[in-house]
Specification:
The chain is mostly helical. The protein has one domain (about 20-215, about 235-445): MFS general substrate transporter like domains (Growth Hormone, Chain: A), CATH 1.20.1250.20. The chain contains 20 helices and no strands. It has helices at about 20-40, 40-50, 55-60, 60-100, 105-110, 115-140, 145-175, 185, 190-210, 235-260, 280-290, 295-310, 315-335, 340-355, 355-365, 375-380, 385-405, 415-420, 420-435, 440-445. α1 runs parallel beside α7 and α1 runs antiparallel to α9 (about 190-210). About 60% of the residues are buried.
Length: about 450
């Protein structure tokens, strides 16, 4: 299937119109599950800081381990689709995710930060296979003119998972933390949530395996089949992969920083110095309150995707993506240059403008790939490794500033200043929206 049109830059050959509502409903549950598991990392970061007494950059290894799996397993994930098709690839991804969730049990029993990171890698490997299969599947499952709108809608349910999971995680994982508890007791708070998720993932794998999902032969590239084209002949894919890299990096860096950022005295004002004079104790207490606000960040993305799904029926994808990139860059800059609730609500509102970015970049990036859609998807999903690199870099810059100016304390202003890095990421996304996203058909017309 060749991909393109005036709204999403996705083209296709004529095909009989079919109803894919049931299939989309089934696949949407996958988006919800991996959204929930990804957002729980934002709760694990401050939790591990407390359990293992580690600094910002080290705690960000949670995201480094998680998102590095996208880089390692995306291309193999695309090959899995070639071997077994989209449906079986989704089942394999779910079972791998379940195995990673169950690995949290021995990691908590030890407890071992390294083993937790290993469990996250396994979990993310499964999510990677799932994403490589599910994103392009939704893109080609239906009318190509509404591909971007359709993917935004399914991603909205991904965001629903990111809204619910941090709130639940803050109550189940962070609320029970006590300075007097042993590291084993503190680490054990992750067992019940992840075992429950592991069971749900296995059940979902069985249900997907039994479901009758339609095959999209024209978007599949089978082993041994020769295709007279290359993914490297499509600049929109290359520029799109970079856009995914910086977008995910910026989104995850902000989401991962919210608890630590809002817990600062000059940002959230959650605990007064008069009621709790000790800075370390005050910061620790504020963390629990601040973690609850992570859900608001992801809720903005969820609301924005429902709205974006409707807007993309009438507005060109590139135009709406460019507007959102401008607003996100502006809000991050305002937050970095201000204090108090202005800084707090500015950074939380970024989630709303992040909303349409991933599905829009994805659909623009895989435009006109036809049978190379699965391979292109592998490259795009591989670029999610930006979530491993940029948050760590933000944490490292924050630690550097804290060490130089605030005696190395976690509650220094290093993170406040380091968050300017995501603003630069949104500037590149603006370039992609306006120029880099043009598929070959548009470039040929203008040549």
């Amino acid at each position: 299937m060749a991909i393109a049109n005036t709204k999403t830059s996705v083209t296709t050959t004529a095909a009989p119109q079919k109803s894919y509502g049931a299939a989309l409903s089934v696949v949407t549950t996958l988006f919800f599950m991996w959204g929930s598991l990804t957002a729980l990392n934002d709760v694990l970061i401050p939790h591990f800081q407390h359990v293992f007494n580690i600094k910002l950059a080290v705690s960000m290894l949670v995201q480094t381990a998680f998102f590095s799996a996208y880089f390692v397993f995306s291309i193999p994930g695309a090959k899995v689709i070639d071997w077994v098709g989209y449906k079986k690839a989704m089942v394999l991804g779910l079972l791998t995710m379940g195995a990673g969730a169950f690995l949290f049990v021995p990691a908590a029993k030890v407890p071992s930060f390294g083993l937790f990171l290993t469990a996250l890698i396994v979990l993310a490997a499964g999510i990677t296979v799932l994403q490589v299969a599910a994103n392009p599947y939704v893109t080609v499952l239906g009318n190509p003119e509404t591909a971007s709108s359709r993917l935004n809608l399914t991603q909205a349910f991904n965001s629903l998972g990111t809204v619910i999971a941090p709130w639940v995680g803050a109550h189940l994982i962070l609320k029970g933390m006590s300075a007097n508890a042993t590291s084993v007791q503190q680490a054990a708070s992750v067992i019940k949530p992840y075992v429950g998720l592991g069971i749900a993932l296995v059940v979902l794998a069985v249900l997907i395996g039994l479901a009758k999902l339609p095959e999209i032969q024209s978007a599949e590239h089978h082993i041994g089949e020769k295709v007279n084209d290359s993914v490297w002949n499509h600049p929109n894919l290359i520029f799109g992969a970079i856009a995914i890299f910086v977008y995910v990096g910026a989104e995850v860096a902000i989401g991962s920083s919210i608890a630590n950022y809002l817990a600062l005295d000059n940002i959230g004002h959650f605990v007064s110095q008069a009621s709790l004079p000790d800075a370390a104790a005050r910061y620790q207490h504020a963390l629990v309150i601040a973690a609850g606000y992570i859900s608001l960040y992801w809720m903005g993305a969820m609301v924005g995707r429902f709205i974006g799904s409707a807007l993309l029926q009438k507005i060109k994808t590139g135009s709406l993506l460019g507007f959102c990139a401008i607003m996100a860059a502006l809000l991050v800059t305002i937050s970095v240059l201000s204090n108090g609730h202005v800084a707090m609500w500015a950074i939380l509102l970024v989630g709303f403008f992040n909303s349409i970015m991933f599905p829009s970049i994805f659909t623009l990036g895989v435009a006109e790939l036809g049978p190379l859609t699965g391979d292109g998807s592998g490259i795009m999903i591989m670029a999610i490794v930006g979530g491993a690199i940029i948050p760590w870099f933000v944490g490292k810059v924050g630690d550097f500033i804290n060490a130089r100016s605030y005696g190395g304390a976690l509650w220094g202003q290093g993170l406040h200043h380091a968050l300017i890095i995501p603003a630069l990421c949104y500037v590149y996304i603006l370039f992609f929206a306006l120029s880099g996203s043009k598929p070959n058909s548009e470039r040929a017309v203008k040549a």
